[in-house]
Amino acid sequence: MIKKYIVRLSDTEREELKAIVKKLKGSSQKVRRALILLKADTEGPGWTDAKIAEALACRIQTVENLRKRLVTEGFDTALHGKPRLSAPREKTLDGKQEAKVIALRLGKPPKGFASWSLRLLAVHVVELGIVDSISYETVRQTLKKTA
What we know:
Helices cover 59% and strands 0% of the residues. α2 packs antiparallel against α3 and α7 (118-127) packs across α8. By secondary structure, it is mainly alpha-helical. It starts with 10 loop residues before the first helix and ends with a helix. It has 2 domains: 11-80; 95-140, no CATH class. InterPro entries: Homeodomain-like_sf (IPR009057). It comes from Rosistilla ulvae. This is Transposase.
């Protein structure tokens, strides 16, 4: 199969990758990316994608994606990965609201129910006006903190 993205590393890039692999410097993802790039280098071993994937216990698509990222976006992006596009989401509930949800959970369930379910809690939190809207997953995460 003809490869569309050919990995050709400079001497400095190759030395940087070898240093990362030798010292296991950085995250495991970074070390794996370094290994993939070293093995895919045409002036180095020049392994096939399938052989790299088998040796490093990853998918062939992972190797192909890394080759593409190196050629299209550059060495640093290929090695370190892409930065996050968006910041982590803000918390839905503040401390007082969390306390009210926990207190509601510790109280008796409404008539006709044996116990509180996450969905039932989410509905009651909105009905009581604690928040405008909330998902049962947020209720679960809030209750899990206290368990």
